[in-house]
Every structure is written in C-alpha cells, then in structure tokens.
Design brief:
Order of helices and strands: EEEHEHEEHEEEHHEEH
Oligomer: single chain
Largest sheet: 6 strands, mixed
CATH architecture of the largest domain: 2-Layer Sandwich
CATH superfamily of the largest domain: ATPase, nucleotide binding domain
Number of helices: 6
Number of domains: 2
CATH class of the largest domain: Alpha Beta
Radius of gyration: 19 Å
Strand order of the largest sheet: 6-9-8-7-10-11
CATH topology of the largest domain: Nucleotidyltransferase, domain 5
C-alpha cells in the first residue's frame, strides 16, 4: 500500500493507494507549528477510523510547497511507519522535460500536476490548480513543460481586498443569480465566481492562441466554485495531484 501526501499552503491532502486504486483520501489543515507527533496522531486516528492498519503501508511519497514541514513529515514517516519517504524534487524521474529558465524553481506541486495530467489525459495540456494560489502550466506534445502563470486564489484575493477596503464585508464564495448584482455581498460573490471563471477562460484562450488547441485539466480545492461558470471545455480531476504522486512513486521505485 502507498501513502501519497500533498503538502499545500492551506491544506495537506493524503491518499491511500492499493496498486493503481485510490482507496481513501482525506485532508488536514496545514500548520507549520505542529510537530511530527501531532500530525501522526491525526493521521493514525483517521487510519484507525477507516479500520486500516498502518503496517500495510510500505511506501510514502511527498510533494511539498511548505519547506518547514519537510523534516516534520520525514521524521513522521521514519518514526511511525518505519519508511524513508520519497520527496518530489530535483533528480526525480518524471518523464517531463522542464524547459524553464531555472528548473529548480519549479514547485513540486506543478511537476506532480503535469505528471498526472500527461499520463492520464496525454499532451498538449494546460494544468490549472486552484488553491491558495492559482497556478497554470503548459505542457506541449513532446511532454516539455514550457512555463506557466501564478495568480492569487479566490479566497486569497478577496481576503486581501476586504482587509484593504474598510466598507467591504466578508462574503462566502457562492454563485449569485446574476452577473450584475445589487448589494455588496452579491457583488463580491459575482466577482469571485463569474469574475474568476472569466479570468480562467480568458487566459486559456490566450494560451491556445499562442500554442494551439489542447486539453485543459482543472483541479484544486477552489475549482468547484467556478467549474459550472466556465465557457472553455475543461476536465475536472479532484485527485490529479494524488494520482501524479502515485505515478511518480512507481516511476522511481
């Protein structure tokens, strides 16, 4: 059994695989102040609730964009699972040719998403991951990752707006009935959903104009808020990064 761990700025997503099959996934809140023991208590509690014995896990692979937690999860893996985990980083065999100015700068999550998308849906492909940040990368038909774009996520952008504009109030992400709304909360919600979906559509069209037609794969915790408002055809894959981690593990076993 394989445990895949995707450490993001807001959430940590874990997936249990039996060969190619995702058995269960679960999510923890990212907290750089928690110790390996505290994270282990949470993870083992979930496994216990699933009636799953930790001894069945014989492999762990980790993708992380939070460097402070790398030693925490390395210690956790060694201490509680007796496993030396694989980390996604320089030197890992991915099948993706990274064609950016400094390949070492590429976030582990971007590589994992590219691996998942190209293996599951083929290339050329645009991969869009919507979380704390919105990341977009383009992979051509030679499996060359040519670059991408980084934008603030929906909640990130609107939390900053509310903090800076004293007369605005917080609003939950929701799709209002109309694009043009008549009260502050609904106007904010229209911007969050209609505005960001239009942003995604517009950037996808610009990339296709530059590189040609391609598939578009959408993932990430905030993707569900805009998926139904998109005009461009996309493939929504909730488990893209977990599947990418699984593929990378077996490529490097």
């Amino acid at each position: 059994m394989l445990l895949c761990i995707d450490i993001g700025n807001t959430s940590i997503v874990l997936g249990l695989y039996n060969d190619d099959d995702l058995i269960q996934s679960f999510r923890l809140q990212t907290n750089v102040y928690q110790t390996s023991d505290e994270y282990a208590i949470k993870i083992l509690s979930v496994l216990n609730n699933l009636n799953f014995q930790k001894e069945k896990i014989d492999g762990i692979i980790i993708s992380s964009v939070v460097p402070q937690l790398d030693p925490v999860f390395k210690l956790l893996s060694n201490k509680y699972f007796n496993i030396n985990p694989k980390f996604v980083g320089p030197g890992i065999k991915s099948g993706i040719n990274i064609r950016i100015d400094n390949p070492k700068e590429l976030g582990a999550d971007l590589l994992v998403g590219a691996v998942g998308a190209t293996n599951k849906y083929s290339s050329p492909v645009i991969i869009i991951d919507m979380g704390t940040a919105i990341t977009m990368v383009y992979v051509n038909n030679k499996n060359e990752l040519l670059g991408g774009m980084i934008l603030p996520g929906i909640k990130t952008a609107y939390n900053a707006l509310v903090q800076k504009a004293s007369r605005l109030e917080e609003a939950a992400i929701s799709t209002p009935k109309n694009v043009v709304e008549k009260d502050t909360v609904s106007c904010l919600q229209s911007g969050m959903t209609h505005g960001f979906s239009s942003l995604i559509d517009g950037v996808v069209r610009k990339i296709k104009k530059e590189y040609g037609d391609c598939k578009v794969v959408l993932t990430g915790g905030e993707a569900r808020f805009i998926i139904n408002n998109l005009e461009e055809e996309v493939i929504y894959d909730e488990n893209l990064l977990l599947d990418g981690l699984k593929i990378l593990y077996y490529k490097n076993k």
